[in-house]
Every structure is written in structure tokens, then in C-alpha cells.
Amino acid sequence: KPRLYSGMQPSADSLQIGNYIGALMQWRDLQEAYDAFFSVVDLHALTQPNDPAELREKTRRTAAQYIAAGIEPARSTLYVQSHVRAHAELAWILSTITGFGEAGRMTQFKDKSQRYGSDATSVGLFTYPVLMAADILLYQTDIVPVGDDQKQHVELTRDLAERFNSRYGQTFRVPMPVIQQETARIYDLQVPTAKMSKSAESDAGVLWLLDDPAKSAKKVMRAVTDSEGSVRYDRENKPGVSNLLVIYAALTGRQIPSIEDEYAGRGYGDFKKGLAEVVVNEFGPVRERALELLADPAELDRVLAANAARADEVADATLASVYDKVGLLRRV
Ligand code: ATP
Ligand code: MG
């Protein structure tokens, strides 16, 4: 089977609906046809300030949400990034073939560093994409399903793989990003021109997977729209309504025109009520399952440890060959 790699940061207690639509739904569908590795990338999460105890808890919660959303740890390799030492080690090697300017062109770094200011921007935030390249390349990955906000990072990963291969001989498989166009990006319900994010400054426009369903329904009802009053997709002039349509379509598997038809001549209130129901129906069971899993953290930790051992085998083989190729002396 071809290999698949993807991951998410444990940067909040709950995942948001963009993570679910932009990533988890695809992961779930792809895990049959691929030998899939799904990681909770806790080393990446360290690029933001964290309370240590909270980070541990967020890591478990993220893993539980993967499983609750349908990732099967007996079939796919679902593990915590820091449990597999090879990630940090390969990242160092790759950082030595990454250009300073090349890394500086990453738009996520530019956005985040601007928001944090230069004193709060760490070198780790700058080299984040190099660690992500290591994540992917360790597993000889064929495809990387991600939201379109990660496309540039996967392109850098490809460049680094090709550069390493041409300098040292065939070592890494060059991965392909897989991005679902229609639903590639979910926007904030209050600021529908900004990507919905776990780490958004205000959570008024973020729909959380683990939130009380009544609270999520309320957020949908309060979503920003426009004064036109017609339910129709127009990303440029009607970003709020278009975003709601994309969410509706993604969660129901319906086409946007059929939803527009259903709500033709009806107001935004009806449309939002319909969407709130869809959201509650979809996330109610996911939330319950996640909370069940979190009620037995010892069992969850055992599952993660077994999966990390599986990941180690593949990752160590790649790392050993990299160490050899670049000329590090073998420890006998
Ligand atoms: P953070 O704010 O901490 O960066 P995030 O919500 O952006 O959190 P990530 O952990 O960076 O989440 O990304 C996890 C996955 O979810 C990635 O595949 C990413 O492309 C996808 N993703 C994140 N936000 C969205 C979104 N708004 N729409 C679609 N996909 C998204
Ligand atoms: Mg992100």
C-alpha cells in the first residue's frame, strides 16, 4: 500500500471544525487504501507558549479526537510525535540543507511572527516547516492530505527531498500534497476572511468539536453574514454565507447548488437553523466518543505507545540511511 502521512498540533483542548473538514474527514476515508501515519505533533506545538501539564492533556485530547472521528489505531499508525525520536534528529539534518531565505518565505511564519512580534518569535517557529518536512520524509510518504494552508510547507518538503536525493543519492520518496479544493479552507464565523484556527485570538467564530452542542448551535446562529438576505455562494462578496454553505455541504456530502435551492426565498435564520442542526448531529456522537476515550487515559496511553513502536521501526530505518549518507560515523 502507498504511504500517507498527516498530523495536527495539540494546540487547544479541542479541534475546530476546519481541522475536521479540512483533514480528519479525508484521513478517515483514505486509511483503507493507504498505509497511514497520523501524528499528534506535540513538538510543533512547542513553538507556542504552553503550560506543561496542559500540553500533555491537549496531546491526549487530540489523539482521542482522531479516534472519535474514525481513525482506527489498529489499522493506521496513530502516535505522538515526541515518542519517536527520529523526528527531531532528521529535522536537524534537513535544517543544514535548507536556505535561510527559503525558510523566510513561508507565509505561515510571516503571519505568525508578525502577530507575535520579534521578541516572542522563536527560532523554532522559523524552523517549523523543516521539522514538518522531517515528519513526512521519515515515513517514505507518498501523499500528504492537508488543508490548503499547509500547501507551501509540503512544497518545501518536496524541494528538500529532491535536494537531498540529488546531493547524496536516492534516499527519500518525494511526497505529493493532496488538497481538497472545494472544502480546502474553512473560515472564522465572525471574521469570514480569516482561516478558522485553534489558536485564534477570539474563539467567538470558532466551532469546537468538543464544545457543548448547544453552544455550537448558538455560534452558528450568530455567524456574520451580509444584508442581502439570499443564500447563495459568492466567496468575494458574501464570504460569511459562502463559508456556511461550504460547511453545510462538507458535513452533509451535498452539493452547494442543491443547498442554495433548498433555501431559496428563505431568510438566513432558516438557513442557520438548518446548519446548526447539521453541526449538532455530526459532532454530538464524535464528542461523546472522545469523552469516553478520555475517561480511560491509561488505555489511551497504551494504544499510543504501541503505535509509536510501529512508527519507530519505519522512522529509524530512514534515519539510519540518512546518517550514513551525510557521513556521520557509525557508532559500533
Ligand atoms: P493552529 O492555530 O495551532 O495552527 P490549526 O487549527 O491551524 O491550529 P493545525 O494543527 O495547524 O490546526 O492543522 C491541522 C490540520 O487541519 C492541517 O491539515 C490543516 O491544513 C487543517 N486545517 C487547519 N485549519 C483549517 C481550516 N480553517 N480549514 C481547513 N483545514 C484546516
Ligand atoms: Mg495551523
From TrEMBL:
Compartments it resides in: Cytoplasm
Similarity remark: Belongs to the class-I aminoacyl-tRNA synthetase family.
Short motif 'KMSKS' region, span: 195-199
A GO CC term attached to the entry: cytosol
Keyword Cytoplasm applies: yes
Region forming the signal peptide: none
Lineage: Bacteria, Bacillati, Actinomycetota, Actinomycetes, Micrococcales
One Gene Ontology MF term: ATP binding
UniProt binding sites for ATP: Q9, P10, S11, G18, N19, G147, D148, D149, I186, K195, M196, S197, K198, S199
Chain positions recorded as L-tryptophan binding sites: D135
Name of the protein this chain belongs to: Tryptophan--tRNA ligase
Xref: Gene3D superfamilies: HUPs (3.40.50.620), Tyrosyl-Transfer RNA Synthetase (1.10.240.10)
One Pfam match: tRNA-synt_1b
This enzyme's EC code(s): 6.1.1.2
GO biological process: tryptophanyl-tRNA aminoacylation
Species name: Microbacterium telephonicum
Keywords: Aminoacyl-tRNA synthetase, ATP-binding, Cytoplasm, Ligase, Nucleotide-binding, Protein biosynthesis
Assembly description: Homodimer.
Primary site of residence: cytoplasm
Keyword Lyase: no
